[in-house]
Amino acid sequence: MTDDRVLPRAVLWDMDGTLLDTEPLWGRAMEEFARGIGAEMTPELRNATMGNSSVDALTKVYEAARVPESGRDFEADEDAMVARVLELFATDLRWRPGALSALDLVAGAEIPMVLVTNTVREVTDVMLETLGRDRFVATVCGDEVAAGKPEPHIYRRAAELVGFCASECLAFEDSPVGAAATHAAGVPAIVIPSAIPVPPKPTYTYRETLEGLTLDDLAAVFAAR
C-alpha cells in the first residue's frame, strides 16, 4: 500500500514548556531576580517574559523596576540567572506530558529533528543530558542568532541547518513568543499552550497536549494547507 501522507521534512522542537516543564522554574528564578532589584513579578510581567530570550526578559524586568540603562548589568545578571536556573533544574526537571513519546514517534519515522530554543547554550547543553543529545541533528540557541524569538532568525537558521525550506518543516511551540517566531519564519506549527493562551495565526494548529500524537496529526498540518 502506498503511503500518500505528506510529512514534514524536519521537525523543529521548542524546549522550555514544550518538551520540558521548565516554565515554573524559570518563573521562580525570574521572580527572585525581580524582587532583588525592586520589581514586583506580577502575572502580567511574568507572561510578558515567558519564552523570551534572556536579554528581552531581563530588559522587561529592568523596565518594571525602573532601572536606568546605566545600571543594567546584563552580563552579570544573566550569569546569576543561569546559575540559579541550573540549581533548580538539578532537583526538579520534568518532561511535559507526551513529550518523550512524541520524540520517539518522530525519530521512528526517520524525520530529522532540531532543538530550537531561546535558552542560552550553557543551559541548553545541560538540558540535552535529559532530552538526549543524539536525538537531534542540530540545536540552535537564542544567544547564537542576531535576535531570539519572536524574531524569525532562529527558525530560519534551523531550517538552513537541515537543508529544507522553512515551509517544509514543522515546529512545536508552547508560548506566544515562540509561536510568533515560527509564523514570522514561515514554519507551520503545532501549538500546545503551556501556561498562557497563544493568539491564533493561520499557520498554527492547536493541541492540548503531546499525548497521543500520531504521524497522521503531523500530515494533517500539511494537508490542511
Automatic annotation (TrEMBL):
GO molecular function, a single term: hydrolase activity
UniProt keyword annotations, A-Z: Hydrolase
Name of the protein described by the UniProt record: Putative hydrolase
One Pfam family hit: Hydrolase
Signal peptide: none
Xref: InterPro entries: HAD-like_sf, HAD-SF_hydro_IA, HAD_sf, PGP-like_dom2
